[in-house]
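Help needed: design a sequence for this.
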C-alpha cells in the first residue's frame, strides 16, 4: 500500500510537471520552456528506466506505438533524404516531442495514473489562462500590442483553444458527475472559460466547441433543432462577414498549398517547405486566374491554418496517412477509457482544421500527454517481466536527448543574440550575422535583415544568396523585391524584371512590385513599358491604402505627366 501511494504521488507529479510546461510564455521560435522540456525529457527517461528496473513493467506494443514509430522514422528520413528546405527548428522540436512520448509511455506503463489527474490539471490550466486573460483585459497588459488578451500566447487565436478545450472537458465531465458540490465547482470553472471565450473573437474555437456541445446535448437539441439551426446560419454568416478578408485569405492559402502539393503528392514538398509551396501556388493560381477575388485578401503566410494540410503539403500522402492512422487509434482508445479527455482532444482536432495549435509547444505537449496515457494501460503484475530490449532502448535514448537539449539551448541563445542587433543593417554586424547563420537558416526575419545588411554594404551577390534562402522559408515578396534591386544595381535588368514579376505573382494585391517595375523600365529607357506600368500603378486597387501607396501613385502620375509634356 505504501509503494502504491508513492507511485500515485509520482504519477501526479509527472502530470503536473508536463502541464506546467504548457503554462509558460509561448514564443514564435525558441523559448526557455523548450530548454526545460529537454532537461525534463532526460529526467523522465531516467524515471522510466528506474520504474522499469524496479517493477519490470512495459506494456506490450500497441498499434499506436507502431504507427508513431513509423511516422517518426518517415519524418526523420524525409528531412534527411530531402534537404530541400532549412527545417532545424521544426526537426528539433519534433524530436523533443518524440522523446517525451517514449518517456511518458515508459512511466505510464508502470504507474497507474488516474484520468482525473489530467482532467483536473487541464481544467486548472484553463482556469489560469482565463483569469490571466481577464487580468489582461482589465489592465491592458496582453503580450501583443494589437490585442486586448492573449494569455501566455502572442495571439488570441491559439489562446482561445485552451479555453475551448477546458470548456469541452468540463461540459463532458459534468454529464458524468453525481457529486453535486464537485459538479458546481466544475460548472463555475467551465462558465468562466465560456464567458471569456467570445472575447477572443476566435471563430474556430466557437465553431469547434459548438459542435461538441451539440453532440453532448443532442437529446435537448432535437427539441430545439429549428432554433439552433437558424442561430447557426445567422452566426455563421455573421462570422464570415465580420472577418471576410481573413476567411478568404485562409481559403487562398489552402488552395495555393494544394496546387503546389499536386506536383509532389506522395512525398510532399519537404519538411519546412510549406511557406515556399504556398508562395509558388499563389503564383501558379495567379497565372491561370488573375481576376480571382481571393487574391484581394492574400497576405504573408505565417501559418497553414490547417495542421493536417501542412502535414499533407510537407510530408505528402504517406505522412498524412500515418498521421490519420495514429490519431484514429489514439482517439479510439481515448473514447474507451475517458470520455471528457476524448471530447477535449476532439475539440482541439476540430480547431486545428482552421488554425495552427499543433505548431505551438503547449498543445503538442497536451496531445502527447493524453496520447501516452490513453495507450498505456498498466498490466497486471503477473504479466510483468523485465525487458532488456526496452531498458537498453531507454538508456540509449538518454545520449541523443542530452545532445538534443544542448542543441536547443544553443539555438535559444542564438535567437537571443539576434534580437540584440536585429534591424541594424550596418556592415559592422556582418561577421556576427555569419557566425549565427548556421542556427538561423530557417528564421526568415534573420535572413531578411542579413540580406538587407549585405545589400547596404553593396555585397549584392552575397545579399542575393541570403535572400534566396529567405524565399525558401517565407512567402514574403519583399525578399524578391530586394533581390530585384540587387540585380538592378548590378546591371542585370532581365533578372531584376523577373524578380519583380515573381514578387507580384505571389502577392498580387500589393502595388510595390509594379512600382519597382515602373522604375526599372525608366532606368533602362523603355518608355513604352514604363508608361504602361505607371498606368497600372495609378489604376491599382490596393488591399490597404497608406501614405506609401499614395506616394507611389503620385509618383506614377508625375512620370506620365512628364512623358506627355516631352511628347
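Sure. Designed sequence:
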Amino acid at each position: 500500500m505504501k509503494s502504491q501511494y508513492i507511485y500515485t504521488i509520482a504519477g501526479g507529479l509527472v502530470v503536473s510537471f508536463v502541464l506546467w510546461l504548457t503554462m509558460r510564455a509561448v514564443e514564435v521560435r525558441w523559448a526557455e520552456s523548450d530548454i526545460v522540456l529537454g532537461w525534463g525529457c532526460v529526467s523522465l527517461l531516467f524515471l522510466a528506466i528506474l520504474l522499469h528496473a524496479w517493477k519490470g513493467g512495459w506494456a506490450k506494443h500497441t498499434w499506436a506505438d507502431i504507427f508513431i514509430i513509423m511516422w517518426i522514422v518517415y519524418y526523420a528520413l524525409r528531412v534527411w533524404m530531402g534537404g530541400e528546405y532549412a527545417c532545424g527548428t521544426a526537426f528539433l522540436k519534433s524530436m523533443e516531442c518524440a522523446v517525451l512520448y517514449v518517456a511518458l509511455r515508459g512511466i505510464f506503463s508502470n504507474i497507474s495514473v488516474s484520468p482525473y489527474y489530467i482532467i483536473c490539471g487541464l481544467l486548472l490550466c484553463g482556469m489560469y489562462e482565463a483569469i490571466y486573460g481577464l487580468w489582461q483585459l482589465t489592465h491592458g497588459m496582453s503580450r501583443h500590442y494589437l490585442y486586448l488578451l492573449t494569455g501566455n500566447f502572442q495571439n488570441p487565436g491559439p489562446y482561445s483553444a485552451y479555453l475551448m478545450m477546458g470548456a469541452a472537458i468540463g461540459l463532458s465531465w459534468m454529464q458524468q458527475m453525481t457529486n453535486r458540490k464537485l459538479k458546481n465547482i466544475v460548472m463555475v470553472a467551465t462558465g468562466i472559460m465560456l464567458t471569456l471565450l467570445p472575447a477572443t473573437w476566435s471563430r474556430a474555437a466557437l465553431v469547434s466547441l459548438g459542435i461538441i456541445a451539440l453532440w453532448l446535448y443532442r437529446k435537448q437539441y432535437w427539441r430545439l433543432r429549428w432554433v439552433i439551426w437558424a442561430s447557426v446560419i445567422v452566426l455563421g454568416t455573421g462570422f464570415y462577414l465580420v472577418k471576410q478578408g481573413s476567411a478568404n485569405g485562409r481559403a487562398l492559402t489552402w488552395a495555393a498549398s494544394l496546387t503546389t502539393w499536386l506536383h509532389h503528392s506522395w512525398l510532399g514538398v519537404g519538411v519546412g517547405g510549406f511557406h515556399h509551396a504556398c508562395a509558388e501556388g499563389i503564383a501558379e493560381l495567379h497565372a491561370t486566374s488573375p481576376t480571382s477575388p481571393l487574391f484581394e485578401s492574400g497576405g504573408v503566410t505565417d501559418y497553414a491554418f490547417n495542421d493536417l494540410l501542412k502535414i499533407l503539403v510537407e510530408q505528402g500522402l504517406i505522412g498524412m496517412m500515418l498521421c490519420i492512422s495514429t490519431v484514429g487509434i489514439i482517439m479510439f482508445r481515448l473514447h474507451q477509457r475517458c470520455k471528457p479527455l476524448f471530447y477535449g482532444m476532439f475539440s482541439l482536432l476540430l480547431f486545428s482544421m482552421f488554425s495552427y495549435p499543433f505548431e505551438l509547444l503547449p498543445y503538442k505537449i497536451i496531445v502527447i500527454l493524453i496520447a501516452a496515457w490513453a495507450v498505456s494501460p498498466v498490466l497486471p503484475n503477473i504479466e510483468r517481466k523485465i525487458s532488456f530490449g526496452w531498458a537498453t532502448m531507454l538508456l540509449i535514448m538518454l545520449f541523443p536527448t542530452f545532445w538534443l537539449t544542448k542543441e536547443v539551448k544553443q539555438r535559444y541563445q542564438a535567437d537571443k543574440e539576434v534580437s540584440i542587433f536585429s534591424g541594424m543593417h550596418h556592415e559592422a554586424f556582418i561577421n556576427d550575422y555569419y557566425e549565427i547563420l548556421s542556427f538561423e537558416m530557417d528564421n526568415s526575419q534573420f535572413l531578411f535583415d542579413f540580406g538587407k545588411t549585405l545589400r547596404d554594404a553593396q555585397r549584392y551577390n552575397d545579399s542575393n544568396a541570403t535572400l534566396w534562402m529567405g524565399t525558401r522559408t517565407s512567402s514574403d515578396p519583399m525578399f524578391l523585391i530586394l533581390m530585384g534591386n540587387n540585380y538592378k544595381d548590378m546591371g542585370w535588368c532581365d533578372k531584376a524584371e523577373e524578380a519583380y514579376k515573381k514578387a507580384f505573382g505571389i502577392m498580387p494585391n500589393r502595388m510595390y512590385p509594379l512600382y519597382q517595375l515602373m522604375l526599372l523600365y525608366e532606368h533602362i529607357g523603355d518608355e513604352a513599358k514604363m508608361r504602361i506600368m505607371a498606368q497600372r500603378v495609378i489604376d491599382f486597387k490596393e488591399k490597404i491604402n497608406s501614405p506609401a501607396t499614395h506616394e507611389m501613385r503620385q509618383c506614377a502620375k508625375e512620370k506620365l505627366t512628364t512623358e506627355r509634356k516631352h511628347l
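The mean pLDDT is 90.
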